[in-house]
Amino acid sequence: MWLTSSSIGRKVVMSVTGSALVLFLTFHMLMNLVYVYDVAVGTAAGEHYYDKVCEFLGTNWYALIATAGLAVLVLLHLVFAFILTAQNYKARGKDRYAVSGKQPVHWAAKNMLVLGIIIILGMILHLKDFWYNMMFAELMGDVHNGIEPAAGYDWINLVFACPVTVVIYFVWFCAIWYHLTHGIWSSMQTLGLNGKVWLDRWITISYVWATIIVLGFASVVVAAIINNGGFTGC
Q: What's the domain range around 183?
């Protein structure tokens, strides 16, 4: 099959899955901003809007299908990323980042594999902190740490009460930012928007979009620290 047997086809798969994951990150960030709103307006216990969002998603059939679809997208993106990286190393060796003329090679482009590994490790931690304690716990009928699975407000407070966890998450956010600043415009270029004018536009859009996403997630962590009155321990 062309999409899996050729280098161009694999790049198209990477671009499509990557674009879908960017849209998911945007949605996920917007959803988490509801927690920031709760903290900002001081919604009373039992009336948190973020908990209502978590309850709406929960283990409903559409949430489960979306979760399964997301897992497939992540898996495809990772598999093809490693395949393309291995091909580049094999084909170019030490000269894999050599360029002609004055076209610069972005730092993120040269370190996508390292960034990808950091992102994978951060994603595993994030799944452990939230998905395992929320959706998985609800599916299994469990309650972890005395907090209900749909009590997303309380889970955010608990996770970011630990300073070590906060530092790890901010390192993760930085890796995501660098990955997105290169990945978004690179995907658009692969999908055909590679004219000089559009390329410059997509590079700008990539930086703005990546910054908005990461600042949105970072604001959740900062809001949790403020809401907790500082760090209360791991």
A: 2-93+103-228
